[in-house]
């Protein structure tokens, strides 16, 4: 479960980058850890919120967070920005995000069975509420369990843990952290609670605390299961991820390599978890600017994913997108374009025309063509990406602001400063609404706007 969580955490941080193609490439880099299926498939389940309710919940939470950002003080603003980024990651990956929610909900309900005997009436009602997607009802019932079973420590800890999961699902991270801390305090040797506490610190950017709990979870898993066990590999993968976030790449590589070695022994060569480990190693070598090593791991991940899933699968598209990104970093723009085009073709077949992942592929192609000096081709792709996300999200959305910024950069490169200024101005309006006037990203776009105006003024004098 936690190996899948690693992906969304890393991508959320990169949503705050605007100018470079890597902001969008990295958006996809670790997503193979999520369960992904074709958007056109219909999910039929008897658990949790319906897909429509899930999407509506994300949209409501996005509105709440965006509104609160306008009046928030600095400390609260940091938390809200993390939450907003995570919401947008989920919106961009709605189908796999929903599937992950359902999968983990089933796991949590199965875990609850062992606690039912301590308070059958409340636990049965809470389980029923979770199955119906009634999170508020379930949370209230678990709060009653906490209150009514003060001497049954494990039962109270599990109720706190379940409340933390509900808060995490709803992207209320301060509440999630408080509940995870309580569960850990009550049962400090529970490896699952340790891992989740590490994860929530990780997602909040509290990396040293995340490392503390991830290391405790690893130590516990090694003692329980031994060296080459999937749970040990997951703990190492989590540690690799947090060291990667801290830009301690050699430490990240150490943990990722140990996870890969273990997964190879457990699953064999062509297994999705082995592909994930190689993809993670590709990502950290990419961060180290060791592009040939990154290509080696990305190519192995692509080969494995092709064998596992076939040609037109989201994970294959992600592998190709990653390879496009590293070739772009090597200034091999034609090779980058080749992989980006294959990713675009696959995403169009999987998701259809107006989908965020299709927009991302087109954005990447826009940057590659711009780097080749083919500014008109770049503008074509950036305009298509913008048009798509306007249809998906509407005017005042971070992704829309991002694509307007990128389109402005292409117009600027072409020497069409009035067009660039128009794009930057619209991007700035949206960013002020979504992130606030003092946010570094807002300030960056404001500087770019000022520069474009200055160049235009000098040109007309």
From TrEMBL:
Intervals holding TPR repeats: 157-190, 191-224, 233-266, 275-308, 317-350, 401-434
InterPro entries linked to this entry: TPR-like_helical_dom_sf (IPR011990), TPR_rpt (IPR019734)
Keyword annotations from UniProtKB, A to Z: Repeat, TPR repeat
Superkingdom field: Bacteria
Pfam families: TPR_12, TPR_16
SUPFAM superfamilies, per database record: HCP-like
Protein name according to UniProt: Oligopeptide ABC transporter, substrate-binding protein OppA (TC 3.A.1.5.1)
């Amino acid at each position: 479960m936690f190996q899948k969580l690693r992906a969304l955490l890393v991508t959320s941080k990169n949503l705050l980058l605007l100018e470079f193609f890597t902001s969008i490439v990295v958006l996809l880099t670790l997503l193979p850890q999520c369960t992904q299926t074709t958007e056109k498939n219909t999910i039929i389940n008897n658990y949790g919120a319906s897909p429509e309710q899930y999407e509506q919940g994300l949209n409501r939470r996005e509105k709440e967070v965006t509104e609160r950002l306008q009046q928030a003080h600095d400390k609260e603003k940091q938390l809200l920005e993390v939450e907003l980024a995570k919401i947008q990651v989920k919106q961009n990956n709605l189908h796999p995000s929903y599937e992950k929610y359902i999968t983990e909900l089933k796991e949590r309900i199965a875990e609850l069975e062992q606690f039912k005997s301590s308070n059958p009436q409340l636990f049965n009602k809470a389980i029923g509420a979770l199955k119906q997607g009634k999170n508020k009802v379930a949370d209230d019932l678990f709060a009653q369990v906490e209150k009514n079973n003060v001497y049954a420590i494990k039962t109270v800890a599990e109720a706190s843990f379940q409340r933390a999961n509900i808060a995490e699902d709803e992207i209320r991270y301060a509440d999630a952290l408080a509940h995870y801390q309580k569960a850990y305090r009550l049962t400090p040797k529970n490896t699952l609670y340790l891992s989740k506490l590490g994860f929530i610190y990780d997602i909040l950017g509290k990396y040293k605390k995340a490392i503390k709990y991830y290391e405790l979870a690893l130590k516990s898993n090694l003692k329980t299961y031994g060296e080459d066990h999937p749970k040990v590999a997951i703990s190492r993968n989590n540690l690799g991820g947090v060291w990667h976030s801290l830009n301690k790449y050699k430490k990240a590589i150490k943990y990722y390599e140990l996870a890969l070695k273990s997964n190879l022994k457990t699953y064999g060569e062509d297994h999705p978890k082995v592909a994930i480990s190689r993809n993670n190693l590709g990502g950290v070598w990419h961060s180290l600017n060791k592009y040939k090593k990154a290509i080696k791991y990305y190519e192995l991940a692509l080969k494995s994913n092709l064998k596992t899933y076939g040609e037109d699968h989201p994970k294959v598209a992600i592998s190709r997108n990653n390879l496009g990104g590293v070739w772009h970093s090597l200034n091999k723009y034609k090779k980058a374009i080749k992989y980006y085009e294959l990713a675009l073709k696959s995403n169009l077949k999987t998701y259809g025309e107006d989908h965020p992942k299709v927009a991302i592929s087109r954005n990447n192609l826009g940057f590659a063509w711009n780097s080749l000096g083919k500014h008109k081709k770049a503008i074509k792709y950036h305009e298509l990406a913008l048009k798509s996300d306007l249809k998906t999200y509407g005017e005042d959305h971070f992704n829309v602001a991002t694509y307007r910024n990128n389109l402005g950069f292409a117009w600027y490169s072409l020497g069409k400063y009035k067009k660039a200024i128009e794009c930057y101005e619209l991007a700035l309006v949206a960013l002020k609404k979504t992130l606030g006037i003092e946010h570094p990203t807002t300030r960056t776009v404001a500087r770019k706007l000022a520069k474009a105006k200055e160049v235009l003024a000098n040109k007309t004098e």
